[in-house]
Amino acid sequence: MKKLRVVFILLSLLITVTFISGWAAATPHTSLKSAVAAAKEHNLPILIKLGTKWCKECKEFEEAVVNVPEIGQAVNDNVVLCILDAEEGPGAKVAKHFTTRNYPSFILINSDQEAIARWIGFGCQDCFVKELISALDDPITITERVKRFQNNPTEDDAGRLGRFRHNEGMFAEAVAYYRRAQEINPASDTHYEMNIFGAMSYGNYFQIFSVDQLIVQADIILNAPWRGDKELLKVAFSMFKAAKRAKDMTLVLPYLKVAVEETAKSPDDGVLNKRAKLMPEYTLYISKDIKQALAFKKENQPQGWLEDANQLNNFAWWCFENEINLQEAEKLARKAITLAKPGREKGNILDTLAEIRYALGDASDAYKYVQMALSEDPDHEYFQKQLIRFKEITSAR
Asked: What PROSITE patterns does the record tag this protein with (predicted)?
């Protein structure tokens, strides 16, 4: 039965657009309760999509389900779709239950609400379809898979359990499963070293893995015979984030240099686009050309960014973090405040302005703007900590 189901899924995805031009998308459920009822009625699993109003990929997925027949049919023929807001209403409880941190998060469950599989992101439509097909290929619960693995360890189960724990935020457990998969099949086509590095990168953010551990894993990838342009860029981006957290940008320099210089002649437009996003940092930290770094940063900004509150804020924060161009950063942050929606969005920009004013030597101004940020979002713990921080600074002067 399992093989017949997989064949059916693959055939449904290969139907031509002409043949399915009359296909209409089913209305997704916005309540887990109604989704469970529908799943029991039709004997189908449930695909929960947890997202937010500000998540770009979340919107892209919802549009694709309606407008891209291959995506819509893959979903509607095989699962009951339930779309929930992870930050508001009942969806927030579901997100907490499944320890969801990144959006969109896709969680496949059965009608008893037991997890089967989960993955993150919708940056690649083909990747989404592959994830869905893979999950439906062997749709047992995670509890059942763990028991099966304990009795009969296989590379496939180890890899699936690693991915699930990875996306669940259980990074140490994910690394252990990835290493086990690697041990079971050292000749596997899956480069588990990349999976391990990805889990360790996220784990570093939560202080589960140290920077030193991450460096060891990054060096393994750089010296691997199979690593290519995409792997180099992934390592560079991840090490850049780790270096920022460690407040030691020298940590990223070897990876940044190799990634930018070795991908310069790539024939892959996707690789070149990602490389372009590293050029501001490469120019700033390797070439040490502030003017050119700013030029690259502005070139990489999305169209219309000068009228977008969040994009203006992102640019201003980048300037603050790198301690450059602070006067223009202040000007753009002030403009962003006038464009921002009341609440957390405006509060975040006010916090950026506070940091810039402090960097420019005005702690009292910084304190004032953090007060304003907290008034926009009184329950925001970070703003509360910022208020205490700047109050102590101003009181000491």
From this structure: TPR
Contact 118, 169 (CB under 8 A): no
pLDDT in tens, 329-361: 999 999 999 999 999 999 999 999 999 999 999
> Interior CA angle at 82 toward 81 and 85, to 5°?
145
Using CA atoms, how far apart are residues 378 and 381, in angstroms rounded to an integer?
8
Confidence of residue 125 (pLDDT cuts 50, 70, 90): confident
Q: How many helices (H) and strands (E) does the chain have?
A: 20, 4
Reported as a pLDDT band with limits 50, 70 and 90, residue 88 is confident
Do both 27 and 83 map to the same domain?
A: yes
Question: How far is residue 21's CA from residue 29's CA, in Å, rounded to a whole number?
Answer: 23
Torsion of the alpha carbons at 35, 40, 43 and 44, rounded to the nearest 10: 20
**What is the reported pLDDT for 45?**
96
Coil/strand/helix, residue 99? coil
Closest CA relative to residue 359, chosen from 317, 297, 306: 317
Residue 362: count other Cβ atoms within 10 Å of its Cβ: 14
- CA 307 to centroid of chain Cα atoms: 25
**Residues 122 and 171 placed together within one structural domain of the fold:** yes
Range of the domain at 144: 2-209
Supply the mean pLDDT for the chain. Answer: 92
Of the given ranges (26-30, 192-196, 341-345), which has the lowest mean pLDDT? 26-30
- By the 8 A CB rule, do 178 and 205 touch? no
Which of 209, 227, 261 is the C-terminal boundary of a domain?
209
pTM to 2 decimal places: 0.83
Beta bridge partners of 83: 49
108: nearest Cα among 81, 84, 89: 81
Instruction: Report the CATH number at residue 375.
Output: 1.25.40.10
Co-location of 40 and 169 in the same domain: yes
